[in-house]
Amino acid sequence: MITFTSQIIAAKPLVIAHRGASGYLPEHTLESVILAYAQGADFIEQDLVVTKDSKIIVLHDIHLETVTNVEQIFPSRKRQDGRYYALDFTLAELKTLNVHERQDAKGKQVFPNRYQGEGTFHIATFEEQIELIQQLNRQFNKTTGLYPEIKSPAWHRKQGVDISQLVMAILRKHKLDDADKTIYVQCFDFAETQRLRNDLGAKVKLIQLIGENDWLESPTDYDFLKTPAGLEAIAKVAQGIGPWIPQLVDLKTMQPTAFVKQAHVAGLQVHPYTFRKDALPENVNQEQTLQLLFERLKVDGIFTDFTDTVVNYLAD
Ligand code: G3P
Ligand code: CA
User: Which one of 4, 23, 155, 234 has the fewest beta carbons within 10 angstroms of its own beta carbon?
Assistant: First the structure.
């Protein structure tokens, strides 16, 4: 079955559907995956966290309340910090939740012009998304890939859970731990990226995400990773980096930084996040932004909430 065959050398930059077609439908739902697929994504992203019964689900945060109605369905299940953790719920319980558009702490929709309906959407498992994309690939004779992110491995470990082992077991079950398959595995935590390659024996292509130290996203020192020495260290275990767009370009002047060139010198692909046409800097339009990223900076791919916009741009 030809479903996730190789696409190592990309003629065109890769369009990575960030949380599915999240610009149009609640993020990471199967509906969002199907729309991203239909819009022509090269890869569809899955952020991964663990449930109480050790299942891997597709959810951006370790918490549930920003994208689900967990507070209405399980009001007593919050921790002392007031948050509802996916890890405290079984998959069966999580399947009873409705997924809605991302909300801020006050319950206001973060991107107000996105999906405004009352539809019912559910949390999906990683394996459900693998099967869905695999089946669509078989039927449409395409090779749309997977782009899973191992979320918060250090936090999961503190809770007694080894998320990377669980993810690798699923990849191996589906014969996806293979450098020649259309899949990249990403992680913000550099120690975990190194562990995946060196200790867990991962063969799959790896992407090191680059954040900022003050985000407290992981124990990683991103100031070091952004240096040529840091990029060289990444290149020993990963095929590329996923930097934040403002690390590649000064958004006030729209002048490129040296980061993409330095990463390319280190032999790394560069897949920045996240192009959102409804959250652009004031001084640029979407055409200028995409032109800068693809023509001037020559990035190798891009995470976007709006797959259709980027696919159309690259088709012109
Ligand atoms: O994984 C790339 C991008 O998604 C990183 O940011 O927070 O959206 O997972 P985040
Ligand atoms: Ca992600």
Answer: 155
